[in-house]
Design goal:
Blueprint (H helix, E strand, L loop, with lengths): L9 H29 L13 E4 L2 E5 L4 E3 L28 H12 L17 E3 L2 E8 L4 E5 L2 E4 L5 E3 L4 E9 L3 E7 L4 E8 L10 E2 L4 E4 L13 E8 L2 E2 L8
Antiparallel strand pairs: 1-2, 2-3, 4-7, 5-6, 7-14, 8-13, 9-10, 9-12, 10-11, 11-14, 14-15
C-alpha cells in the first residue's frame, strides 16, 4: 500500500513566524497609540506658578527668583500701537501791561538826542587877521610873516565879549603873548580861547556859561599883537588841535 504524501502550503510552513511578527506589530501599534493618547507635557514646577503677573499688557509668570514671559500672552507690536502726532508748540505772545508801556515810553522819551555843536562869533566886528595854520600871514607887531592859530576880530575897547557856545570855564590867566586869556571847554573835545581881553573878573574857573553870555570885554592890545589895536584874539580847538573857525561857525 502506497503512503500518501501531504504537501504543506506557504502559510503552513511559515505561520509560526507570521504569528510572532503580527503579535509584535500589534504590540508596537498599541504602544504608540497609548503613548500618543496618554502623553502630556508637564512644565517644570520651578518655572511656573499659578498667579500670572501682568506688566504693560504683557503676561508674565513668576517664581521665587525671576519673572518669565508667559508664552500664551498676546504680544503687541509697535506697528499696532497708534502713533501720536507731534503738535507744534505755540509760544504765547508777551503781554505788556499798561505800567510797562508807561515805563518804556518814559525811557524812550528821556533818551537825550545829541545835537551837533555850532559856534557863534564872540564879537561882531571885522576880521583883521585870518586863521593861517597851513600858510603865512603878516604880523604888524612882529613885522614878519608867521602862522596864526586863530582869528583877530577888531572892536571897541571894553566892548562885550560873549561865549561862542555852551560850556564850562576851563582856565583863565595872563598870557605873556596875548594878555588876559579865558579858555572854555565844550562837548565833543572842543575848546574856545579868548585872548587880549579887558578883564578876567567876570567869570570863575569851573563856572557853567551859556552861548551868548558875556565873559569879558575887548582889550587895548597886548604882547605879540599890540600893534593891531583894540581887538580880541579868538581860537577854536578840537581834541587839542587848532582848527579853522569857519568850519564850525553857525
Amino acid at each position: 500500500m502506497r503512503r500518501r504524501v501531504q504537501r504543506l502550503t506557504w502559510f503552513q510552513k511559515y505561520k509560526k513566524y507570521i504569528y510572532i511578527g503580527s503579535g509584535a506589530l500589534a504590540l508596537g501599534v498599541a504602544s504608540f497609540v497609548i503613548t500618543v493618547l496618554t502623553y502630556q507635557e508637564k512644565p517644570s514646577n520651578e518655572l511656573v506658578k499659578k498667579d500670572p503677573v501682568i506688566i504693560d499688557e504683557y503676561a508674565y509668570q513668576k517664581d521665587e527668583s525671576s519673572i518669565r514671559l508667559n508664552p500664551e500672552a498676546i504680544h503687541k507690536s509697535e506697528e499696532d500701537e497708534p502713533k501720536e502726532e507731534k503738535k507744534e508748540e505755540v509760544k504765547p505772545e508777551p503781554v505788556v501791561t499798561k505800567k510797562e508801556e508807561e515805563v518804556n515810553t518814559v525811557e524812550v522819551s528821556t533818551i537825550p538826542i545829541k545835537k551837533e555843536i555850532t559856534f557863534d562869533m564872540p564879537l561882531d566886528g571885522e576880521i583883521i587877521l585870518e586863521y593861517a595854520k597851513d600858510k603865512l600871514v603878516y604880523s604888524n607887531t612882529l613885522e614878519e610873516w608867521t602862522t596864526h592859530d586863530g582869528i583877530d576880530i577888531k572892536g571897541e575897547e571894553a566892548e562885550p565879549i560873549k561865549a561862542s557856545a555852551d560850556g564850562k570855564i576851563k582856565d583863565k590867566k595872563v598870557d605873556p603873548r596875548y594878555g588876559n586869556t579865558i579858555m572854555i571847554e565844550h562837548d565833543d573835545g572842543y575848546k574856545t580861547i579868548y585872548a587880549n581881553l579887558s578883564t578876567l573878573d567876570l567869570v570863575q574857573v569851573g563856572q557853567e556859561v551859556k552861548k551868548g553870555e558875556i565873559i569879558s570885554g575887548v582889550g587895548a592890545g597886548y604882547g605879540f599883537e599890540v600893534e593891531e589895536g583894540s581887538h580880541i584874539h579868538f581860537e577854536i580847538q578840537k581834541d587839542g588841535e587848532a582848527i579853522d573857525f569857519s568850519t564850525v561857525k553857525k
